[in-house]
Design a protein that fits this description.
One of its GO terms (cellular component) is cytoplasm. Residues 17-184 form the HD domain. InterPro entries: HD_domain (IPR006674), YfbR/HDDC2 (IPR039356). This is Hydrolase. Keywords: Hydrolase, Metal-binding. With 196 residues, the chain is mostly helical. It has a single domain (3-189), classed as Hypothetical protein af1432, CATH 1.10.3210.10. 64% of the residues lie in helices and 4% in strands. It is built from ten helices and two strands. It has a two-stranded antiparallel sheet with strand order 1-2. A hairpin with a 6-residue loop joins strand 1 (24-28) and strand 2. Helix 3 (62-71) crosses helix 6 (114-129), helix 7 packs parallel to helix 10 (181-191) and helix 9 (165-179) runs antiparallel to helix 10. The radius of gyration is 17 Å and the shape is globular. The chain starts with a helix and ends in a 5-residue tail after the last helix.
Length: 196
Amino acid sequence: MTQDARLTAQFAFLNEADRLKSVLRATTLCDGSRRENSGEHSWHLALYAMVLADQSAPGVNIDRVIRMLLIHDLVEIDVGDVPIHSENGQAHASEATVKAEQAAAARIFGLLPPDQAASFRALWDEFEAAGTPDAIFAKSLDRVQPVMANLQSGGGTWITYNVTADQLETRVGSKIARGAPRLWDWVKAQTTAFFR
């Protein structure tokens, strides 16, 4: 691949990635003024990883976690966001959704030069599988950030979707606790006032 072809492919990917800024999520900004977009969510999660690195398990590579978080939702360009507390949220891992996300990953990462396409796709697959310490911690942060936004905005989507404390524990808390148990203990304590 020539240098010009490589740059053309890299900018094709970067221009496509810009579309993530147009994917609206159910979660609002912390001030509740509007819904956040998936690009903002990904940036915020990368910052969460930098700030909360001390909550990760020994051996977690925060640089890899940040890279995962920056690309983890790119498939939403094609598939959209499925809020975890929505009616379809529990079916998020449905066969149809998984296939759609796999196809989106192939298309979007396939825009990159072959070496980067393979590397980015492997990192995305690792995040999705949540089997490595890096991916487990990344998934934990992906669940923490919306909780904090809901707390800051006076309940946010918890009110919209009639979320209960039990639902928060099973759908979110267990995933946070798997990768950052001390973090979940602290966050859970913050939610008790809301779920009285």
